[in-house]
Amino acid sequence: MPIHYHTSWPDGNTTLMVWRIVESEDWFMERIPDALSLAHPRRRLHHLAGRFLLSQADPAFPYAALRLTEHGRPFLEDGSRHFSITHSADMAAVIISQDLGVGVDLEFISPRVLKVAPRFLGISERAWLAEAGLADPVSGRPEGHLAVEICTLMWSAKEAAYKWLGIPGLDFAACLEIEPFTPGASGEMKTRCRKDGELSFRIGYQRVGEAWLTWIAEPLELHRPGQRLPSAG
Prior knowledge:
globular, alpha+beta
């Protein structure tokens, strides 16, 4: 079974899994119930892989209680579990918890991330990236491979945070700020959300092949009333 990464939290109620997709649609269809019928082959395969991973992380996952928000994100109507699903190229990941709010993201490292950098990097983040000797992805200075890697990591981290927060239309550059850190193969980033106040939390990360995996699993009590949507994929 091509699992790249699998970890469980000490509480026993939170699991994170990553899967490299080498199987066919038929292979997944034989193993999972109630898959959606999607027209695009890539989206269909990603959907199947995500559903399969949910069943691996939690064999008792209540598929019958799955619903979609108005934004098309899956959640459990009975609220028995909180989960998040992500796909990128030939990989899929899922994080699921009975007790914690969760979010997960996968992003393959690519220079294309610099084109969207102004949309997710704030002024203070760009400043400390430049001070650390990295190319400023907004100023147009020559880009180094390390700049591409760290920007991809920060983009992925903010995507994971967005899924955990569940705030539609959140401005990544203005509202989400990652504190300065030195990236390694794995670690944590301290992050703040400035939206109707300030909220601090941690985002974990792990290099998986040529991609960054990021996740957040924090107590639901951190959320202020009215800010959270149902658990999103």
